[in-house]
Queue: 2 jobs
Job 1
Amino acid sequence: QVQLVESGGGLVQAGGSLRLSCSASTRTFRSTVMGWFRQAPGKEREFVASISPGGGRTVLADSVKGRFTISRVNPKDTVYLQMNSLKPEDTAIYFCAADIDGKPLYAGTERYEYDYWGQGTQVTVSS
């Protein structure tokens, strides 16, 4: 069982920045693919970013490329999502997810690939 706890969400004006954190309770964090997804009201949960177990590969959704960065600190069992130049359309609940069967240099983008999910943290961007 893996528990994921997100933090760092909040209300920010358009153009502002936020950094989300996700702390994982697992002894195998360094071999786990980590991802961020988001879900806006009335919409499907969508992929945002993912990072391979060692951090050597990252994948970003086209909608956030150039604005968001995903990173991880394995000794701290934590993954981060740095969000810059935020837009009102980034408003959503952001979820952290873990793929415990992840392979080196692999970073999945599909929801079904992830085994565990956090409760989510709300990000609201005002115009």
Job 2
Amino acid sequence: QVQPVESGGGWVQAGGSLTLSCTASTRTFGVYAVGWFRQAPGKEREFVASINWNGGRTDYAASMKGRFTISRDNAQNTVSLQMDSLEPGDTAVYYCAWEPALSGDTWRESNRYTYWGHGTPVTVSS
């Protein structure tokens, strides 16, 4: 059973940056596609970004493109989400989700991912 663990959340002023990380103890980290999602209070969970198993394919939600960067280091079993130019609207709990996918696919739909972390909160103040 793979259990992703997120870290790096916190409080930041608008315009600032945070880097979130997602890792898990597994020998097969390199086969997983990873997605980042977020859920703000009273809102549905939404797609943020995704990366395929070798880092060769990334995808971003329109409102994050140009501000967020997803990357991975398979040697360190880590996927990172660099978030710049943060806005109060980015306040949410951020989750990483994993799905085995040697096909190279990634998905924007949360129900395509099997393994989920417990989330890390991000608060952006104006």
